[in-house]
Amino acid sequence: MNKLDSLLTPKSIAIIGASPDPNNLARGRLIPALVQGGFTGKIYPVNPNHEEIYGYKTYKKLIDIPEPFDLALIVISAKFVPDTFSDLAKCGCKFAVIYSSGFSEVGGEFSNFEEQLKSESIKHNIKILGPNGVGFLNVTGKVSATFSPGASLGEIPRNLDGVGKRLVIVSQSGGLGFALYQRAVTRGLAVSHVVSTGNEAGITTLDIVENALEDEMVGCIALYIEQLRDTQKLRPIAEKALAQRVPIIIMKAGRSSASQRAALSHTASIVGSDTAYEAMFSSLGIIRAFDQQEIIDLAAIFTTNKNPLGKKIGVISISGGGAIWLTDSCSDLGLEIPEFSSKLQNQLRNFLPEYAGVRNPIDITAQSLNSDINVRTLELLASSNEIDILAVVATLSEPKLLTKDKSRILEIMNRTLKPVVFCSYTIPKLSNISDLHDCGIPNYTSFTGCAKALHALWKYEEFINQRTEWKIPSIKTPKIKSSLNRNWTESDLKEIYHELTIRTPISIIAKNVDAALTAATSIGYPVVLKLQDPEIVHKSKVGALALGLETKAELIEAFNKVRCASKVKSDSPILIQEMISAGLDVIIGTVRDKDFGTMIMVGKGGTKVEEINDTRLYPAPISKEEAKILIQKVRLFDTLLSDGSSRSFDLDALTDVIVKVSAFAVNNEHIIDEFEINPLRVFSPGHGVIALDGYMKTLAYEELHKNV
Amino acid sequence: MNKLDSLLTPKSIAIIGASPDPNNLARGRLIPALVQGGFTGKIYPVNPNHEEIYGYKTYKKLIDIPEPFDLALIVISAKFVPDTFSDLAKCGCKFAVIYSSGFSEVGGEFSNFEEQLKSESIKHNIKILGPNGVGFLNVTGKVSATFSPGASLGEIPRNLDGVGKRLVIVSQSGGLGFALYQRAVTRGLAVSHVVSTGNEAGITTLDIVENALEDEMVGCIALYIEQLRDTQKLRPIAEKALAQRVPIIIMKAGRSSASQRAALSHTASIVGSDTAYEAMFSSLGIIRAFDQQEIIDLAAIFTTNKNPLGKKIGVISISGGGAIWLTDSCSDLGLEIPEFSSKLQNQLRNFLPEYAGVRNPIDITAQSLNSDINVRTLELLASSNEIDILAVVATLSEPKLLTKDKSRILEIMNRTLKPVVFCSYTIPKLSNISDLHDCGIPNYTSFTGCAKALHALWKYEEFINQRTEWKIPSIKTPKIKSSLNRNWTESDLKEIYHELTIRTPISIIAKNVDAALTAATSIGYPVVLKLQDPEIVHKSKVGALALGLETKAELIEAFNKVRCASKVKSDSPILIQEMISAGLDVIIGTVRDKDFGTMIMVGKGGTKVEEINDTRLYPAPISKEEAKILIQKVRLFDTLLSDGSSRSFDLDALTDVIVKVSAFAVNNEHIIDEFEINPLRVFSPGHGVIALDGYMKTLAYEELHKNV
What we know:
The structure is a homodimer of 708-residue chains.
Chain A (H helix, E strand, L loop, with lengths): L4 H4 L3 E5 L13 H7 L5 E5 L5 E2 L2 E2 L13 E4 L10 H6 L4 E4 L10 H15 L3 E3 L6 E3 L4 E3 L20 E6 L2 H13 L4 E6 L8 H8 L5 E8 L8 H10 L4 E5 L4 H11 L6 H10 L3 E2 L3 H11 L10 E5 L2 H13 L9 H8 L12 E2 L9 H10 L6 E6 L11 H10 L4 E5 L5 H9 L4 E2 L2 H21 L19 E2 L1 H10 L7 E4 L2 H11 L3 E5 L13 E5 L2 H13 L9 E5 L5 E10 L3 E8 L4 H4 L2 E5 L4 H10 L1 H6 L10 H17 L4 E11 L6 E3 L2 E5 L2 H7 L1
Parallel strand pairs in A: 1-2, 1-5, 5-6, 6-7, 10-11, 10-12, 12-13, 13-14, 15-16, 15-17, 17-18, 18-19
Antiparallel strand pairs in A: 3-4, 8-9, 8-11, 20-30, 21-24, 22-23, 22-24, 25-26, 25-28, 26-27, 28-29, 28-30
Helix pairs in contact in A: 10-16, 11-16, 13-14, 18-19, 21-23
């Protein structure tokens, strides 16, 4: 038995604060919602002012209820909620859904109610969904424990059967969760559960996801989140989902400062760093969406339960314009629409009208509407090995258009392993959507939406296949000992680079001008001077750096100037270094994210890293294969690699350093606070890289104690 | 009187090939469509086999019709169509809509029918709409001259009145045109005309656009095109549209090779170079869309007839999650959601619930649903100068939600100059859409779609304002004389660069080794050698180039080697050139586009230009201001400029060269076939540019004669 069963599939429910007034938005609507939703278990309203509500005997107090019950729905004022828990425990109740608002999302004293709630919940071992949510809807189990008007959709058919799988929706915003449900059902998707988690004082989004993964009928999970409160669970749950091939689609809100302002007062979310979330999502194959229709478009293809072998699309259309439009949209995303072999073209010509286009896209022309040649085309292509996915452009605005062909289409779908989608350029009628759903075919109402979904399907497949080859290499890295010396100088770091076999410039420490001159002669002009002062992080800003010194005279002048920049003492050592030729300047660093731990950072380097804002994160440790994917997410590298080769820089050497730095950071993760090589100069292919400057901050003993 | 009046608003119509069979897709549906569409003029069916069709007296021959008529609708076989024109002329008919297929889109002998059609049309001065189209719908004039099922939308209200303007749809694909109509009307837009132009044997897409611009009620024009057949009209018509502030939205199909394959057999379109079209669109403020919903989203905001003064958005939401989502979507596109002043926040607090967010976005909370505070918030913000645009996030799935507030909202909208939009996260009911339309407020069903539309609105406004400052500078450029010498060498081009004041490396021509050594000494080592041979376009590929020669010995060896690469004769001159330091390599060129004439090309330079595929076109001549916009469209420059400054390269110097080259190309446009500087090396700001190599192809006398 599933551990959330008593919550999502209860046999008996008490409703604390139930009201007989149907105009009362929350309190008056829960019982009718349960009844209309088909709930067949017991209902116990609790309200001291009524004998009976909606025909159900009503209890003055919880403990008056004669039998134990599974679930409590709580719709009373926030401040009274914590007091109910000891009685709930006496009634044998294990779960409570708290709809009431006025907790931590308001702040101030209201946050105390939430703290009380949590401690009562732990004390009495009663798990909480909410507060500040709109409850849940279990469509398959017929439990409509929500007052959201979005839960009842009138005549729109809920297509729970069919050859595909089901969608679970979890949302930190109740309104958006049920809006998504409405849109999904209207598009013919089989939705099994919608859960609003609110402030997540107990049960979290990831708890619901974990639970959904135990249901083998679930084919896809869609989330709206502002933050995850149990970030450590993300990796194991996402990996389980990957293993089961159940894609997780996430809309993560709060990317801008203006929206972060709003999130705090909405579900009390301190919105996490978007770049860290993005890094986690991309490393775990979680699909990020940015629009409601996009979520539905993706969920529609992922619940069909068919996996393509490649990205070759066959397009069948009754409209020439539609064929062209979908072909463009697919091509834009890198999907292929291959020209058919002459053999296949001839087979198509056998039954298609004289003027039909048969090269792919196939224009079967509007004349075909009154015949069965659309089905014959589908049949032929479904069994062809020239394509991996089939997309049909149609007009589904006439009702019952597919009814006559439905059994033949179902037969084709039962036989083929290829995903098939329909894309209607007119607004489709529900009956056609339903017929398609029964055959396991999603329908799209947007050419670009359809293409994006096919692209995501192929990318997910590719991700799963690639991932099996990712291996985190075992790399011997230096072990840093904690010390009070917190800012490391370049020469300190040099040893670390050396142990990591990252090349550094030839350089010699000099304490006076004579030593500097000797060093320069041995290195060879031109040289570079760098002051070694732990207090100075950005050398170029304070004149602690001199480049391109060609002669002895220049060296002497520069030496005296650089020395003056020292903050600590007048005899700080100065590094004499070979001058390095031009290349691509990259930053490689590590950060400790408060939510997700050590992450590796890669981006365009130089002194303006923050302004340029072209860096990407990825959870450490990283494999070579992932490092190469990460590199391409940096805009600069993507632009440079856009000719399909890596002519402009040494991709392999850069990858190598990323992997080493990530291993180094993970092996010292409680000691290193920040680490960066900037610039790492990257030369043309085969010419490697060189670490020109760097920075490391380690944690002192007392901080270590706080952090470990 | 408008010149297309007799076509789009005829008083009498003959239907050649009319049939009484309602199952006949085209022939049997035209009369019912006209009648149901409310046509009140005269209808003359022509069919030798019937006395009466749908109650209308039917004529055996055209010339039997007793009175002159305005328009002929022709639905007979392609091959018989040309023969009808002499009789049409006798009947005083000026326009014919030809629905029949089987013309140039099929190819072969069928193309002849189209040629005959054209010559008959010219001979008898009868203008053709079609063939291979589905006719047109004039909603305002009640002329439904189409058999498209999409023209009759059942109960969906056509919102032709209201405070906004109207949309005209023109499509080379009839199916897609009427699908767009269905979507537009369902979203509450006022559509006045839908025109399917088919193969465009006579009247073109641009003719319809030109005609629509004469109707002051038209606020926006949406097009689906595969190609334009009268490209020379694009500029004057687009400029007229800009002057009238009537945005043109274009879906241009045929971007990929696979879709180009299909376009030819669809409407006989030789799909033009997409990059040239893109260049024209961006220079003329034409808005390009890629999806049907995107077209509607854009048309919805552009028909409201309100222009924003800036990009500051005030977001009002009844859902906290919805507020955050829309705010993110707007921020992603660079729109601002400013935090309100404390004065405005206090004014809002006066009437909003205690827990409402008032900083912007405003979360008025679901409690506000039963009061008028949503309208009060709208009222307050509509008159605030802290924002330019108002976006309301709502749930419009309950019918008649806005009816009670409609008159107050209308009052607000009549007073404010600010655009206001609604965005519903649930699927909106038609009644609410209609109420909003009446108030001049478009509704969106997608957060990203809403944000994109607001962004496009602001960008259009910005474009119109910027454009007034664009001035093509008058630049004196060298006049090229045509000659048979068609491939110009670098030293020939050097004079042109000199006259255009574009810097080139110091270089001296040497015919032998001794002269080369003297030259190198005078220039200073290191030097570069380049063979001057008009037959060699890519020097590095054939060894006609030597870089970084440091000594006399290296120079002598290289001189002899490079000379061997000559194809023509063993004593081709060799250029001795100063070695230029590193920088950004750019290509600047000109091309003669078959559709749109001389265009300037800018992009990432070097030897791999084709593979890198990071160049952009723009019609020449170009102003400095446009050149700067163009530069940012090149991916490489966009990446480099992404820190908001131009630190990485000399933007002004690059701009200057683009403007000069464009002027040069335009002033010699019948002589220069191709011209490029590649690489133009661009240094850091203030350090200018230098033309390192180049190429020009001029047309010989006989070709000039063909082209002028």
